[in-house]
Amino acid sequence: MARGVNKVILIGNVGGDPETRYLPNGNAVTNITLATTDSWKDKQTGQLQERTEWHRVVLFGKVAEIAGEYLRKGSQCYIEGRLQTREWEKDGVKRYTTEVVVDMNGSMQLLGGRGGSSDDAPRQPRPQREPQQQAPRAQAQPQQRPAAQQPAPDYDSFDDDIPF
Amino acid sequence: MARGVNKVILIGNVGGDPETRYLPNGNAVTNITLATTDSWKDKQTGQLQERTEWHRVVLFGKVAEIAGEYLRKGSQCYIEGRLQTREWEKDGVKRYTTEVVVDMNGSMQLLGGRGGSSDDAPRQPRPQREPQQQAPRAQAQPQQRPAAQQPAPDYDSFDDDIPF
Amino acid sequence: MARGVNKVILIGNVGGDPETRYLPNGNAVTNITLATTDSWKDKQTGQLQERTEWHRVVLFGKVAEIAGEYLRKGSQCYIEGRLQTREWEKDGVKRYTTEVVVDMNGSMQLLGGRGGSSDDAPRQPRPQREPQQQAPRAQAQPQQRPAAQQPAPDYDSFDDDIPF
Amino acid sequence: MARGVNKVILIGNVGGDPETRYLPNGNAVTNITLATTDSWKDKQTGQLQERTEWHRVVLFGKVAEIAGEYLRKGSQCYIEGRLQTREWEKDGVKRYTTEVVVDMNGSMQLLGGRGGSSDDAPRQPRPQREPQQQAPRAQAQPQQRPAAQQPAPDYDSFDDDIPF
DNA sequence: TTTT
DNA sequence: TTTT
């Protein structure tokens, strides 16, 4: 049920503790930023170069819950998802943000032994709050989540739907 | 020589005839847009849904030349590259464009029998113009290439370097 | 629900018309062989070298049915699956066969315009035989479902044995 | 320079300390076995199932040296390579072994913090012996390397070439 | 802007 | 056994 292939495979380190929210239908959504670093030898100078790329990753459903529980700032993880660009507006100007979407067709895996540098016990699932507490269906003050790299609007201001 | 994996695999159809330009150092750069289409059955309504995603793909070097010669509007092709987001400015506002970069570490392949719907004979390499004509090292009037999907500045306004 | 990643991505041409069989539980199983060809320039002689690799691909379920209907000898297709080695015995000697398994976690896509060189009208689904004929749901001796996934002897008691 | 795609992506744990040998031309060859584990819920019984797959991985060149230095039994690593089946003979009977080949077009990466359970200090490169010592061009007693999973002959009995 |  |  598809024409075409749209696949992204990443291994990198998580830029900050993930924040999981819940859609009105109860589905979890977790946003993370992932850093991948390339290094190569400059052909001219022969010097070792390095470049870090930051990726916006959005996880949905079961994998979003697992990400929210197990990933921490610094965690190394594997991501398999698809590229998706969504449009948003700011000050009447259209902007575009490209994300790596991970849903039930994708995959996420925590790698390595210790999972990052957060205060929470690493590699141990966080105490799972009650979903209701965790994701109030009606959110009075949607707390702002600091957008990484690309100043894009977050999924916090939704009412019932997500703009993509 | 890398920490992390940053890999994109696409199969889709090219949105328009590719345009190949040459960097001052003689390296070819080809921009294409690639459409990948997903379809799935809506869980609620049971109806068949469809969504087309447009990807900005930038090819460098040898693979850029091959893309410029063989790809046409409508061509189905396989792309293996890496994700890269570059920053640019317009009216004093920072914007970001995410592209799939294909260089010597990536790969491009024309798929299927007939290569697209262009006027040129498909699957036949285009008459190769002289590189000098094609890519004057000193370009008085860098012709504008219409940006696809995301209104981003092109690689035409470079002096010697590309902003990534 | 996994530790580790086991992923195979192939684009190649089908070596012969696929043959679809049905397991006692009604699930379809299609076997194909897929040829991928590499070419490279020999460093010593500078000559163009070529090597064709043949892959055994086993598809299960829905994707097996689609493969059986649409693929033909010569069809170019995309395969996403996982590596699996199964053990079997011949003349008291253990042998091993490695296959690329495509199930609901994998994917298959017919590529290009014309689908191969078979006599059947290409790209048109084959006349679908009645499932009952094809796969009698009620089988006197439902041999134990040769678990697709686990190290099973073979996928049914076919006579033609497999040459690798 | 290719028709077709032949790509394998694995993340798993190394089954034993790697053994690196050197070809007469000085190129390194490292063999490892890699375990990937899948788990899934059985549809009938609802029980959690698990299956471990062992992969034979052969690395060549620079990446073979890095693998030999940094990988240890238990190390978690990422492998990107291609599928290759080679034929060999035993007691006049042809057999086939499928391997994942990693060369300069592929990639290998050590994952996680501590790299395995070997006695050598993990994550620290092994003391690098002198290449000459390491890889005598004429090897009087090619040490036998225990073949994993598939009882295939090793690359030890080569004179000048490798049988694939 | 592509394709089926 | 495929394909260009």
UniProtKB/TrEMBL annotation, chains A, B, C, D:
DNA repair keyword on record: yes
Chain location of the short sequence motif Important for interaction with partner proteins per the record: 159-164
InterPro entries with a match to the protein in the record: NA-bd_OB-fold, Primosome_PriB/ssb, ssDNA-bd
Key words, A-Z: DNA damage, DNA recombination, DNA repair, DNA replication, DNA-binding
DNA-binding region: 54-60
Quaternary assembly: Homotetramer.
Protein name: Single-stranded DNA-binding protein
Source species: Stutzerimonas degradans
Phylogenetic placement of the source organism: Bacteria, Pseudomonadati, Pseudomonadota, Gammaproteobacteria, Pseudomonadales
